[in-house]
Amino acid sequence: MATEKIGNYQLHLLAYELPGDGQWDPFVTIDRFDEARSDFVRVVDRRHAAEKPLPTYDLAIEAARRFGTQLVESNTL
User: Fold this and answer.
1) Measured over all CA atoms, what is the biggest interatomic distance in the chain, rounded to whole angstroms?
2) Reported pTM
3) pLDDT in tens, 42-62
């Protein structure tokens, strides 16, 4: 798992290896820092980040990064 920060958001990038074929399934979880609580609140709970599994862990993490960044930048959270 990798964690990245974009403004007040924290992206948790995950990739799970699928049994049997060595493919990786990417996911992203996003938290937003809430000033009133002085803590992070979950705004996206483990969302699938690609239409199909990817051949390597690194490609899956990059897909999760792109998808999470797109969600944050679209202001739909």
Assistant:
1) 46
2) 0.90
3) 999 999 999 999 999 999 999
